[in-house]
Amino acid sequence: MKLGIKKIEFIQAALCKDWSYMPRSGQIKLSNFISDSLQELPFTMDTGVFEEKWEKTSAGIRSVVNISGSIRQNRYESSAKMMDLLRGNYVFVITTNEGIKYIIGSIISPIKFSYTDSVSNISMSEYSFNAECETLHGALIDNN
Question: What is the C-alpha separation between 21 and 65, in angstroms, rounded?
Answer without folding.
Answer: 20
